[in-house]
């Protein structure tokens, strides 16, 4: 998450240092999430079938290589390639990390504690990323954070051999190479289409969207016919699994989409520096980290589904509190909403981690985490595109920018509230079918 959110803290410096145009700047901000989204499910399937520690270690090394490429980049193209590689490597770490920690202790409370710390790490990473790059930027060292991330990646890879034992693999199950290729290609084309929409490239967006539809349809057909599918669609008949996937997608399309846009809005419309904007948004992400750790106390009182529904509903309330900005408004008006959304997001992140492994058979845990995070990042990509299009306004028209913010804050808040209702409805529907 440090790497994911880092460019938000020094986007202007990166644009200048790499001579990036508007399109390249968009890819600088979108490339790591693209690498993550297209690789998570395949990484999870590979981990369940070949060993989770092996994939975790490999992912950490790949992440380190991608970070080194970013640190040594002289052009925007090189930097984007490095970010894509970072995303692929991070997918291996994210898909396997929660399952590896859970495997250390089979106790349900230990699993919930692991999920809480996982959720906290998500929030803390998002909070620290822009601050880290912003501080290095003040010293004229924009590449230093990526060298630091490369060193951390190597350290994590080495430490994994000491901290985790290798997990058992699924006997007699083959890796679905065709499914992996179709799914990766389909998601890749879909995400490229969304980035092109944000840049105003309608024709390439339509071509990529058409290719994505063909590839993902072929993927679905291949999974129904495969003896060893990557995704067992029968799992979606389980209300709790479908609810967890829905909650992850809504989290991406709601709070993550708005907060991804918030830094740009604060700089262009509220007159803040990128470092100041990152610090303000740290109220949301930092609060979510603390909330995620404390939320483990809810395990004995709430089901996983109830935790997701409450988290989404409260997040929606927090996002709605961010509306009502006018010409005389200050950034301080956003603080109450950021704090409420932060507490709720922490509860939500911990619940997503909890349900990612609880709603799927133990031998498919990495696929469960991969599916959970894939839907989150795809939802975020769709949400960021919609938010960016709806909030677009001329640079010198502050009133239009403020109005755009109010509209997208309402939209993402409503999306979160509807998502909470959908989570409860899916679980109820699953029980009735069962």
TrEMBL record:
Listed GO MF terms: transmembrane transporter activity
Subcellular location: Cell membrane
Domain Major facilitator superfamily (MFS) profile: 1-431
Main location: membrane
Membrane-traversing stretches: 24-46, 58-81, 87-105, 117-138, 144-163, 175-195, 201-221, 241-267, 273-294, 306-327, 333-353, 374-393, 405-427
Keywords: Membrane, Transmembrane, Transmembrane helix
Protein's UniProt keywords contain Transmembrane helix: yes
Protein known as: MFS transporter
Species the sequence originates in: Saccharopolyspora elongata
């Amino acid at each position: 998450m440090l790497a994911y959110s880092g460019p938000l803290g020094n986007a202007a410096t990166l644009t200048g240092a790499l001579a990036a145009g508007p399109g390249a700047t968009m890819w600088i901000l979108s490339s790591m999430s693209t690498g993550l989204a297209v690789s998570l499910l395949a990484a999870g399937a590979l981990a369940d079938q070949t060993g989770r520690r092996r994939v975790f270690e490999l992912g950490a090394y790949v992440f380190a290589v991608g970070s080194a490429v970013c640190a040594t980049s002289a052009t925007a193209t090189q930097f984007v390639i490095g970010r894509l590689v970072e995303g692929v490597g991070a997918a291996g770490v994210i898909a396997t990390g929660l399952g590896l920690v859970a495997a250390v202790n089979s106790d349900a409370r230990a699993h919930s504690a692991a999920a809480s710390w996982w959720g906290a790490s998500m929030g803390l990473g998002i909070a620290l990323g822009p601050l880290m790059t912003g501080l290095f930027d003040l010293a004229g060292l924009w590449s230093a954070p990526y060298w630091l991330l490369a060193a951390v990646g190597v350290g994590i890879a080495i430490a994994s051999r000491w901290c985790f034992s290798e997990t058992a693999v699924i006997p007699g199950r083959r890796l679905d190479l065709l499914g992996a290729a179709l799914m990766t290609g389909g998601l890749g084309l879909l995400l490229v289409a969304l980035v092109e929409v944000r840049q105003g490239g309608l024709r390439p967006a339509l071509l990529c969207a058409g290719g994505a539809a063909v590839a993902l349809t072929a993927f679905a057909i291949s999974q129904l016919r495969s003896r060893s599918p990557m995704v067992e669609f029968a799992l979606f008949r389980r209300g709790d699994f479908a609810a967890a996937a829905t909650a992850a997608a809504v989290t991406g399309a709601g709070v993550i989409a708005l907060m991804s846009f918030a830094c740009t809005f604060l700089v262009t419309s509220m007159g803040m520096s990128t470092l100041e904007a990152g610090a303000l948004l740290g109220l949301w992400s930092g609060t979510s980290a603390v909330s995620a750790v404390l939320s483990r106390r809810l395990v004995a009182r709430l089901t996983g589904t109830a935790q997701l529904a409450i988290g989404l509903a409260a997040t929606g309330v927090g996002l709605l509190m961010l509306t009502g900005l006018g010409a005389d408004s200050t950034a301080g008006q956003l603080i109450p909403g950021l704090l409420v959304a932060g507490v709720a997001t922490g509860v939500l992140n911990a619940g997503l981690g909890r349900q990612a492994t609880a709603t799927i058979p133990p031998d498919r845990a990495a696929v469960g985490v991969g599916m959970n995070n894939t839907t989150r990042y795809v939802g975020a990509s769709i949400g960021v595109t919609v938010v960016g299009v709806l909030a677009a306004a001329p640079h010198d028209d502050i009133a239009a920018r403020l109005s755009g913010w109010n509209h997208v804050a309402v939209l993402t808040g409503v999306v979160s509230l509807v998502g909470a209702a959908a989570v409860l409805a899916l679980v109820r529907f699953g029980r009735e079918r069962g």
